[in-house]
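Quick one, tokens below. Sequence please?
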């Protein structure tokens, strides 16, 4: 007969492993529940974003989609806003809208991140003297539609590298000395659910988001001694122009919010969760996707992107017929 202690050890080990797996997959939802309840029991934790991080927020890619809504939501909480994007007219329009609605200060900087290294001296100069409390590294680009790597224009691949990888890395480096000196601040890196697996027909895009995922988690460790928050935000599908290749995604739905709804939820998580999908239904999707082994996720992702490519071609054909 096998002694009881011989059986107890594997059972406890299995329970421990299952508990770790469960927390790892549901931690963003768990952290949000804790964050909502904490102010009721620990009043000192009920601070505003300005009190926790500072008076100025910088948002890249801030004239459309999630970035624009992040800027609006942070302004609604009283923060002054620095808008960084490519198009002057759009920057002026968003800055004017924010100032009129929320009576905060704004500054805009026109910068095309696809140009790579040459733009960062200008950005460093423009941000000098501004005590940046929150940096939202939102700017990003996607392929026009899912396609084989050798069919994607080289210029687009360089855009993915310069915009999705270099921008967040270099801007983080620019603002960190000031944050470290003040021992206060938050870096918010917008990744994507595509970080979860290799993604056929969107290989470079998904790989760039895997970089952001690993970069952010490493920075959390580096910045913790300085009291600086580094948050990873990994949305699933949001109905923004980045997903124009799919009529299915652009229709939206319970699991595909619009940019305004998404940003409201995501900004709420700032200071409450270090790693989040930013939206409640995305948290459920993220958890379910991780249940499958990587090869299954890759297979499903490739199949899905083939379907999106068909949708894109169908849209193009319909547009030609309509002319």
């Amino acid at each position: 007969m096998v002694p009881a202690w011989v059986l107890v050890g594997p059972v406890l080990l299995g329970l421990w492993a299952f508990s770790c797996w469960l927390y790892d997959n549901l931690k963003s939802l768990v952290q949000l529940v804790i964050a909502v309840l904490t102010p009721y029991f620990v009043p000192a934790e009920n601070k505003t974003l300005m009190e926790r991080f500072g008076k100025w927020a910088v948002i890249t890619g801030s004239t459309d989609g999630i970035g624009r809504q992040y800027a609006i939501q942070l302004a609604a909480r009283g923060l002054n806003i620095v808008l960084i994007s490519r198009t002057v007219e759009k920057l002026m329009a968003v800055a004017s809208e924010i100032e009129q609605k929320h009576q905060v200060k704004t500054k805009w900087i026109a910068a095309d991140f696809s140009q790579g290294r040459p733009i960062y001296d200008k950005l460093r100069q423009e941000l000098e003297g501004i005590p940046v409390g929150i940096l939202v590294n939102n700017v990003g680009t996607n392929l026009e539609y899912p396609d084989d790597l050798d069919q994607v224009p080289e210029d687009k691949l360089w855009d993915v590298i310069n915009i999705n990888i270099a921008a967040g890395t270099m801007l983080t480096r620019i603002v960190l000395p000031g944050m470290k000196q003040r021992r206060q601040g938050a870096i918010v890196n917008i990744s994507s659910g595509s970080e979860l697996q290799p993604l056929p027909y969107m290989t470079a895009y998904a790989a760039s988001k895997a970089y952001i995922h690993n970069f952010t988690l490493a920075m959390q460790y580096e910045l913790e001694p300085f009291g600086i928050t580094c948050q990873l935000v990994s949305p699933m599908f949001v109905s923004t122009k980045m997903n124009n290749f799919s009529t299915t995604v652009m229709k939206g739905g319970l699991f595909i919010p619009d940019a305004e709804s998404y940003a409201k939820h995501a900004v709420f998580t700032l200071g409450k969760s270090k790693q989040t999908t930013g939206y409640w239904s995305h948290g459920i999707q993220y958890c379910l996707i991780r249940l499958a082994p990587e090869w299954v996720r890759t297979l499903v992702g490739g199949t899905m992107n083939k379907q999106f490519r068909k949708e894109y071609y169908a849209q193009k054909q319909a547009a030609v017929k309509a002319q």
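Residues 18 and 24 are 10 Å apart (CA to CA). Strands lie at 56-60, 80-85, 106-110, 132-137, 186-190, 229-233, 275-276.
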